[in-house]
């Protein structure tokens, strides 16, 4: 599953980073970056789902139909 973030919605609240530090981080300008865009393990999927549930602006989603590249 592919993680997608709508950067136009993201307010960099940081909840996703604390819930899924292997998937998300902040860059030098305090903007969200996706470290790993493909969830390949059940643990990563769970972390991504937790981050999605806690995002205050609903900027994160999992795309189950995206093809791996």
From TrEMBL:
InterPro entries: 3Fe4S_ferredoxin, Fe-S_cluster_ET. It comes from the Bacteria. The keyword Iron-sulfur applies. Keywords: Electron transport, Iron, Iron-sulfur, Metal-binding, Transport. The keyword Methyltransferase does not apply. Ferredoxins are iron-sulfur proteins that transfer electrons in a wide variety of metabolic reactions. This is Ferredoxin. It comes from Paraburkholderia bengalensis.
